[in-house]
Design brief:
This protein has 122 residues and is mainly α. Helices cover 70% and strands 0% of the residues. The protein is built from three helices and no strands. The protein is rod-shaped.
């Protein structure tokens, strides 16, 4: 006798459907049909789905706008840091030039501009 590869899965499906319909009859409810166990999520109204899709699109747009704003803030901060680093290096160069030319008053004045009020370097 020849057996087919599909016979076992098909037999299991038939047994599952039969067992489900027997359970439904035992509980006093009607079985929905042979494919009733395939319904995984409840059916929703299309208006609700459209509303959720619209809110998702709005959230995506808001997130993209927030990301662009954050990137602009980051670029602005990087530009300020670069500008301040350039200013600090220019002050240090002028201080070094003043020390090498033995202008101690200028060197002390320049040294004071490169430090915050607490005395620590920037």
């Amino acid at each position: 006798m020849r057996t087919y590869g599909w016979a076992l899965p098909a037999g299991l499906v038939v047994l599952l459907v039969a067992a489900g319909s027997m359970d439904a009859r035992a509980q006093g409810t009607q079985a929905l049909g042979p494919d009733s166990f395939l319904v995984a999520v409840p059916i929703r109204d299309t208006v609700e789905i459209q509303r959720e899709l619209g809110s998702a699109v709005q959230a995506k747009t808001r997130a993209e706008r927030d990301r662009a704003h954050a990137e602009s803030l980051r670029n602005s901060a990087r530009a300020r840091i670069t500008r301040k680093q350039g200013e600090i290096s220019a002050i240090k160069d002028r201080e070094k030039t003043a020390r090498s030319e033995k202008r101690s008053a200028d060197a002390v004045a320049l040294e004071g501009t490169g430090r915050p009020p607490s005395g620590r370097r920037i």
